[in-house]
Design a protein that fits this description.
Pfam families: 2-Hacid_dh_C (PF02826). α3 crosses α5. By secondary structure, this protein is of the alpha/beta class. It has 3 domains: about 190 residues, NAD(P)-binding Rossmann-like Domain (Rossmann fold, 3-Layer(aba) Sandwich), CATH 3.40.50; about 100 residues, no CATH class; about 120 residues, Rossmann fold. The protein starts with a strand and ends with a strand. The protein contains 9 helices and 21 strands. The strands form 5 sheets. Strands 1, 14, 15, 16, 17, 18, 19 and 20 form an 8-stranded parallel beta sheet that branches. Strands 10-9-11-12-13 form a 5-stranded parallel beta sheet. A 4-stranded antiparallel beta sheet has the order 4-3-6-5, with no helix packed on it.
Length: about 450
């Protein structure tokens, strides 16, 4: 069971410094059914990012006998179910609209916010013209770059007749798959591609940048003004939390030392440390911190939670100097930002108790590498690192041979569970973008 550190702690929003922060996804509105009706006459396209804008339009007529404006549907689309429109600040006008193509005739009855939807009428010659303004889902294909072929394959079919995106795979190892100026959605790979500032500078049509990581630091400073940035908060929680528990146990029970002895064929019996009765200080208590706490529930440890500022049962980062001397294990889970760069400096490490373990599952930039090396060589602290000051860590880097350190090559979140959850998130986000529904994990305000 976990013993909470304090019951009188204060309140906070996140473990992040000022900038942008992730906000939760919104709710969905009911779906609207589409039924066939012969003799209808118009077809159209959508509003939302990348669509053709439309001027303000008058209210729609309320009776079937009134003239009927075109509705936003793609030419050639058949009957089925369309996702409902997202909320609009304008008053709704109840109206009846019709649409048809060479192959289909459709009728739609719904309450619509008349000023909010751009409509493009599709004529028999495929010429696009503007129609009355209303709000419907995107039904024309978009240009999207994705990180892997698996993600591209996941988008080969979409629900409710949504258009399949024009998908191109770009992992940063080859030439650009097309003009960046045409990209509306970009899902970059786990390892940042080269030349991100220049690449984003060319993406003037970008509307959604969906990362596959919780961190967004390579993209945030260079985000085009019309683009929305969303992270992958939650998809790596299980893997990262599991790695942190494993690293704690391995180091407290001296597993690396026993592995070395095994390679030499030596039986090196000795008492080791133990996780039970330890105080574990989590620095950066967000979704991964919560996942870590759940996994530590059976280890009979005391959990001390620290975030950027305080909230109930969570200490503020300004309290670290008083908390560090009492922690047996310090776990770093903060994002890489200007305010967390070098957070773990010589003063921070000096406040840790003798024999304490530093576990870094955050970013290498959070820790002063030289200060950590000094403590390791002195034998006063131990460390488990999934991230390092330079990645890949050069073979001649002194961290490899420092005593009391366990290093893995940034693999904490690299698990099948993370891959599955990433693919599910990306697919859902793109569907939300196409249908105008609220996105998950939007980075706004501060990060």
């Amino acid at each position: 069971m976990i013993r909470s550190s304090r019951a009188d702690s204060r309140s906070v929003t996140s473990a992040s410094p000022p900038g942008r922060n992730a906000i939760a996804q919104g709710t969905e509105s009911p779906r609207t059914s589409v039924r066939g009706r012969p003799g209808a006459t118009a077809v159209a396209a959508p509003s939302g990012p990348g669509s053709v804008p439309a001027p303000e339009s008058p209210e729609l007529p309320e009776s079937p006998e009134s003239p009927e404006p075109p509705v936003a549907l793609a030419a050639g689309s058949g009957g089925g179910v369309l996702p409902a429109s997202p909320p609009c600040p304008h008053p709704a006008t109840t109206g009846r609209a019709t649409a048809s193509s060479a192959a289909d005739s459709l009728a739609i009855d719904r309450a619509v916010p008349a000023p909010c939807l751009s409509v493009i009428t599709v004529t028999s010659s495929s010429t696009l013209t503007r129609g009355p303004s209303r709000w419907f889902p995107r039904l024309l294909p978009v240009n999207i770059w994705v990180a892997t072929q698996d993600i591209a394959d996941d988008l080969s079919t979409l629900p409710d007749g949504l258009p399949v995106p024009d998908r191109k795979v770009y992992d940063g190892t080859g030439p650009l798959p097309g003009p960046p100026e045409e990209v509306e959605i970009w899902v970059p790979p786990l390892v940042p591609v080269p030349g991100i500032p220049g690449l984003l500078g060319r993406m003037g049509n970008l509307r959604l940048l969906q990362t596959v990581t919780a961190g967004v630091e390579p993209y945030l400073p260079h985000l085009p003004p019309k683009a929305v940035l969303c992270n992958a908060r939650g998809v790596h929680d299980a893997g990262t939390a599991e790695w942190a528990v494993g690293a704690m146990i391995a180091m407290r029970r001296d597993f690396p030392g026993f592995v070395t002895a095994q390679a030499r064929g030596e039986w090196t019996y000795h008492h080791t440390g133990v996780l039970a009765d330890s105080t574990v200080l989590i620095v950066g208590y967000g979704s991964i911190g919560e996942a870590l706490e759940r996994r530590l529930a059976g280890f009979e440890v005391e959990i001390v939670r620290v975030a950027r500022t305080a909230r109930d049962n969570v200490h503020g980062q300004d309290e670290l100097p008083a908390l560090l001397p009492h922690a047996d294990v310090v776990v770093l889970l903060v994002p890489a930002t200007t305010s967390t760069a070098g957070l773990v400096d010589a003063e921070f490490l000096a406040r840790m108790k003798d024999g304490a373990l530093l576990v870094n599952a955050a970013r290498g930039s959070v820790v002063d590498g030289d200060a950590l090396l000094a403590e390791l060589r002195a034998g006063r602290l131990r460390a488990a690192l999934d991230v390092t000051p330079v990645e890949p860590l050069p073979s001649d880097h002194p961290l490899w041979t420092a005593p009391g350190v366990f290093i893995t090559p940034h693999v904490a979140g690299s698990t099948p569970a993370s891959v599955r959850r990433t693919r599910e998130l990306v697919r859902e986000q793109i569907i939300r973008h196409l249908t105008g529904r609220p996105l998950a994990n939007m980075i706004t305000g501060h990060y």
